[in-house]
Amino acid sequence: MEPEKELRLRLRFYKTTSKSVEEIKARCENLKAEVAPDFNIKTLDNHIWLSIGALKREKYSPNLHLEIEPMEDGNTAVNGLFGPDPVLWTMFMFLHFIVAGIFIIFGLIAYSKWTLHQNFALDISIMVLMVGCWFTLYFLARRNRSRGIPQMQELEELMDRILY
């Protein structure tokens, strides 16, 4: 997987393994203590969350969510999703909603002023500024993801230890 060439901010992948769901869960339980200070492994039903341990965690550290499903042929399907730290993701989404709200409000104000034949240049300039904020948030997220690529590779290696 080459995340630096992907356009999406949250990377998804699909794999299959010959291990059963029970074997994968047992492997997770065995690895929890072995990798404890560097990585966190959490399991619930057919979901596994892998994250960087508290000692190595940065604000851009990724998480890996795995969903394991048994297949009819005895193999196991693994759906994976790399994502940012949930707190950071929530902050970015909150900022996006604020920017979108300001954009919509000033769009409505600009439309009202246009219909009343008043000057609406300030409102349009604030809307353009909000579009600039959207691009800034996007590029900040891309930069954080690129800074987290080495840790993504570490999580992928841990995943491979669990699945194969």
TrEMBL record:
Keywords: Membrane, Transmembrane, Transmembrane helix
Record carries keyword Membrane: yes
Transmembrane residue ranges: 92-114, 120-141
Protein name: GTP-binding protein
UniProt organism field: Flavobacterium sediminis
Lineage: Bacteria, Pseudomonadati, Bacteroidota, Flavobacteriia, Flavobacteriales
